Amino acid sequence: MSGARASGRTAAFDAIAPTYDASRGGTARAAVFAEQLSPLLDPAEPVLDIGVGTGIVAAELTARGHRVCGVDLSPGMLAHARERLGARVAVGDAGRLPIRTASVAQAVSTWLLHAGPDPRAVFAEVARVLRPGGRYLVIPARGMRPTDDIGRIVNDLEDRLDPEHRRQDGPDLLAPSAAARGLAYEGPAERRPTVFRVSPAGMADTIAAGRLFTGAWQVRDEDLPLVAEACARLRALPEPEVPRVREMADFVMVFRREG
Ligand SMILES: C[S@@+](CC[C@H](N)C(=O)[O-])C[C@H]1O[C@@H](n2cnc3c(N)ncnc32)[C@H](O)[C@@H]1O
User: Fold this and answer.
1) What percent of the chain lies above the pLDDT cut of 70?
2) What is the rounded distance in angstroms from the CA atom of residue 89 to the CA atom of residue 82?
3) Which of 17, 56, 105, 209 fits as disulfide partner to 30, beta carbons 3.0 to 4.6 Å?
4) pLDDT band at 2, cuts 50/70/90?
5) How far is the CA of 241 from the centre of ligand 1 (A)?
6) Is any atom of ligand 1 closer than 6 Å to the C-beta of 143?
7) CA distance 242 to 244
8) What's the rounded mean pLDDT across residues 38-58?
9) What's the half-sphere exposure (Cβ side, CA atoms, 13 Å) at 146?
10) In sequence order, what DSSP letters do the residues of 59-123 get, joined into one string?
11) 19: buried, middle or exposed (CB in 10 Å: 19+, 13-18, 0-12)?
């Protein structure tokens, strides 16, 4: 990643670090992720958490008997991780890991690959640091895109704001890129459906505040009309104030280092 892009990303996560945990489902979300990852991890081997953030998921893995160390680009996020994990975390770029070649048995990333780094660079680095046969477990942020009436409007907006799909981290997009770098996609595992309620107007409010689903999403001024149009479409849906039941599913993408 270029220095300018990296420092912009760092600043964005530094800014939201104090409120990150509470605004992203807190310990409950982290515990669910740890429950999904834990059965796929070898407790006898250390785990590298790439994009460890505030360490909230790593702490839940630690509580389940795993030895976790982490790297993250954002010193602000890492300050919280250090409180949870002590000296086992370090500043590092996922696209240039400060780790020896073929020294890692297993690595994880939760909600990283949509959040700024170039997945191609991350996969190349993960392939370098993993031992042959080692696994990289990824919980994507946008792995599954709901196609209900709210979802169709939001997906359309995301595609228009992100035509190169830099913020999409589902298997369709990522598996070929990983394979080209020596990481074979073994498929989804530990699928957990989640159900939540949101109204079209509530979703429009979230989007209008420039937040979409991540506080780090920077909407450019020239794109604001696209956001306004999506909000108007949401508010034009039937019964816009009435919360709908929406279903999504978290799952783990399993990659294996070939060779
Ligand atoms: C959405 S947060 C997820 C944090 C944590 N994994 C979790 O599930 O709570 C994304 C994290 O990725 C980090 N990040 C973004 N780009 C990175 C990069 N190139 N190298 C390392 N970390 C990066 C951010 O600083 C942030 O902490």
Assistant:
1) 93
2) 6
3) 56
4) very low
5) 34
6) no
7) 6
8) 98
9) 18
10) HHHHHTT--EEEEES-HHHHHHHHHHHGGGEEE-BTTB-SS-TT-EEEEEEES-TTSSS-HHHHH
11) exposed
pLDDT in tens, 51-79: 999 999 999 999 999 999 999 999 999 99
Atom 9 of ligand 1 has which residue's CA nearest to it? 53
CA-141 nearest atom, ligand 1: 1
DSSP notation for 202-241: HHHHHHHTT-TT-TT----GGGHHHHHHHHHHHHTSSSTT
Kindly state if the Cβ of 158 falls inside 6 Å of ligand 1. no
Widest distance between CA atoms in the chain: 56
What spacing in Å lies between the alpha carbon of 258 and ligand 1's midpoint? 25
Backbone angles phi, psi at 51, to 5 degrees: 80, 45
Q: Rounded to an integer, what distance in angstroms lies between the CA atom of residue 28 and that of residue 34?
A: 10
- What is the overall mean pLDDT for the chain? 91
* Nearest by Cα to 33 from 124, 111, 90: 111
Give 238 Cα–ligand 1 centroid separation in angstroms.
37
- Alpha-carbon distances of 94 from 21, 44, 115, 155, 167, rounded to whole Å: 21, 24, 11, 27, 16
Return the pLDDT at 176: 96
Which domains, from first to last, does the chain contain? 3-145+165-193+248-257 (3.40.50.150)
Any ligand 1 atom below 6 A from CB of 56 = yes
As a whole number of angstroms, the distance between CA 170 and CA 173 comes to 6
